[in-house]
Amino acid sequence: MTNPLARLPELGQSVYVDEIRRRWLEDGTLETFVQRDAVRGVTSNPAIFQKSIAETSDYQTAIRDLARAGHDVPAIYEALVVEDIARAADVFRPQWDASDGRYGWVSLEVSPHLAHDADGTVREARHLFARVARPNVFIKVPGTEAGVQAVRTLLTEGIPVNVTLLFGLARYAEVLEAHLAAMEARAAAGERPNVASVASFFLSRIDVAIDPMLDALADQSSDLAARAERLKGRVAVDNAKLAYAHWQNVMQSDRWAALAKAGTHPQRLLWASTGTKNPAYSPVMYVEPLIGEETVNTMPTGTLDAYRDMGDPASRIGEGVEDARQRLGELAALGIDLDEVTATLEAEGVAKFVTPFDDLMKTLAEAV
Fold this sequence. Notes:
It is globular, with a radius of gyration of 20 Å. The protein is an alpha/beta fold. The chain has one domain (4-367): Aldolase class I (TIM Barrel). An 8-stranded parallel beta barrel has the order 1-2-3-4-5-6-7-8, surrounded by 9 helices. The termini are far apart. It has helices at 4-7, 22-27, 29-37, 46-54, 60-68, 73-98, 118-132, 145-157, 169-188, 204-218, 222-229, 235-251, 254-261, 301-310, 321-333, 338-367, and strands spanning 13-17, 39-42, 105-109, 137-142, 161-166, 197-202, 268-272, 295-299. Helix 9 (169-188) runs parallel beside helix 12 (235-251), helix 10 (204-218) crosses helix 16 and helix 12 (235-251) packs across helix 15.
């Protein structure tokens, strides 16, 4: 039987692996993902690098050599991650070359401490993009208010961006607007308006936050229990479907038609946080309903394995959009403010990257 992962590109969806390890670059694991599973890219973040560097022995020699050469802890960290990202980008470069830059991307995130510093984010993004020196590298920028400002600047300058930590529809609309405005600015300046970008919309964390709220309502009465049960495990996918519907509406606009004519490729939605946290739910619940044209799904290895075993690929992202809208309306009727929840998740998301980043700095300091 055909590998279900390998069939997703036929439906317009690219698969990225949401992890990177130096060992994968040396033992052929990353190449196996490409050849067996049709993986088209890699995403990384501070938590992933903390796990990879601090919890394996893969980097011990490199850390020791860099320390002996007189590098301080921040320089050691940067050298380690830049080498991994550059090597991974080389693995995917043939895809990038063959697809006019649509596929074959690897993401490297700016320091999470810059999440609310637009100017600092721009400076670090410029530095990292130049340091890696590969055209198929996305610089990841958190989708905070300051991050959105930085994204517009970076895209206007021609630096590819992966906008991460997106939870709410309003913030996503701002990110898509930043891409459009940046490409219009480039076109007006006589620059090629085709700088690649993806918008990483997070999934599982939304259900993790909402489900306990629904359980609390269910404890109050049998009527509320029935209404709450219909929404459990549904909000994240429903939210994502509405984000995609917004994207489709923009893609049908005259504004987009003018950019497309000038050669702009769309900013694709990337489904992130796709590992199922609740063992009672399907391990592919954040993959199956969100397959569609011009989308990306970045999967941790556990989700990749599960989809390879049990995936049933079909284009389903356009199904049930009005039902999704009604369910989110019901959520509001129950007194749960999704905008408030997603704003909290954005703030928590930044914190969840700051902690492992700082832990990794401590680990490196101890190692040197």
